[in-house]
Amino acid sequence: MELASDCDKVFGIIDFDVIMVETRVAKKGVKTPLQEFKELYTEITKYENVTVIINNPCFEYWLLLHFEETSKYYDSYDKLLKPLKKYLPDYEKTQKYYKNQSKDIYSRLKPNLKQAISNANKSGKFNFDNTQTGMSEMQKFFNEADIKENIELK
After folding, report:
1. Taking a C-beta distance cutoff of 8 angstroms, is the pair 66, 109 a contact?
2. Cβ partners under 8 Å of residue 121, min gap 6
3. DSSP code at position 112
4. CB atoms within 10 A of CB 91
5. Which of 74, 85, 106, 148, by CA, is between 20 and 30 Å from 35?
6. Surface-to-core class of residue 11, CB atoms within 10 Å of its CB (0-12 exposed, 13-18 middle, 19+ buried)
7. Environment class of residue 33 by beta-carbon count within 10 Å: exposed (0-12), middle (13-18) or buried (19+)?
8. What is the pLDDT of residues 39-96, one digit of tens each?
C-alpha cells in the first residue's frame, strides 16, 4: 500500500498460474494463496491509483492475443508455449529476448497491439468464481489515459 501513497499510478501485473499451483499444493486447513490473493485484491483495488492486471495463466497469454482471439484456458505456461510459438517461433522467457537490441518484444508486437487490446477486451475480466478461463487484462495498461496518448495504435 506504500506505493499507492507514494506514486501517481501503480500497476500490478499478476501471473495467475503461480497462484493456482501454490493453491493446489497448500496444506489443508490453512489459507490458500488464492484466498490470500482475493483478500489482497479486494483491499488494494480500493485505491483509485492502483490497477491490478491479471493474466490467466500468464503474461504469455497477452502475447498470444496479439495473433489470435481466444479464451481457451491453458493451465500452465508450458501448455501455452506451443500455440505461442506458432507466431513467435524463437520465443524465450528471458530478458535477452525481451530486450533484444535489433527487435525488442514491444517492437515485434506493436503492429498487432490494437488487435491484442481488442482480443483482451473480448476475453473479459478476471472472475474469482471461474478461474478456468483464459484471459488477460493487459489492455488496462494501454487504455490508461496517460499511456494511450503516448502510443500510436494502427
Report:
1. yes
2. 139
3. G
4. 16
5. 74
6. middle
7. middle
8. 999 999 999 999 999 999 999 999 999 999 999 999 989 999 999 999 999 999 999 9
Pairing state between β 135-136 and 50-56: antiparallel
**How many residues are listed for the chain in this entry?**
154
Calculate the alpha carbon distances from 105 to 31, 35, 48, 54, 83 in Å: 37, 33, 29, 19, 17
What pTM did the predictor assign?
0.89
Q: Is the CB of residue 66 less than 8 Å from the CB of residue 105?
A: no
CA 7 to CA 91: how far, in whole Å? Answer: 33
Look-up: residue for cell 501503480? Answer: 10
Residue-by-residue DSSP string for 52-89: EEEEES-HHHHHHTTT-------SSHHHHHHHHHTT-T
DSSP 87-98: T-TT--SSHHHH
Burial of 23 (0-12, 13-18, 19+ CB in 10 A): middle
How far apart CA 46 and CA 63 sit, in angstroms, is 29
